[in-house]
Amino acid sequence: MSSTADSKGCDAAPKTEWPELVGCTIKQATEKIKAERPELNVQAIPVGTIVPQDFDPNRVRLWVDTVAKVPRIG
């Protein structure tokens, strides 16, 4: 029996990061994270936003830098 760190045995630690979601939409990323860890609070934060530096083990921040709508004057 193998005991590799990435095995999905009953003692496997819960996932804490999702590098495969880089480039996905906010909706896709949120749905994937909530499907795997429904207890987490997922927040979409624009890149450059000042946020508290506290550690919250129940929070995932999605750093967003994609223009979602056409920029317009007015």
From TrEMBL:
Instruction: Fetch the Pfam families from UniProt.
Output: potato_inhibit
User: Which Gene Ontology MF annotations are present?
Assistant: serine-type endopeptidase inhibitor activity
**Keyword list, A-Z:** Protease inhibitor, Serine protease inhibitor
Database matches in Gene3D superfamilies: Trypsin Inhibitor V, subunit A
Q: Which InterPro entries match?
A: Prot_inh_pot1, Prot_inh_pot1_sf
Family per similarity comment? Belongs to the protease inhibitor I13 (potato type I serine protease inhibitor) family.
Quote the protein name from its UniProt record: Uncharacterized protein
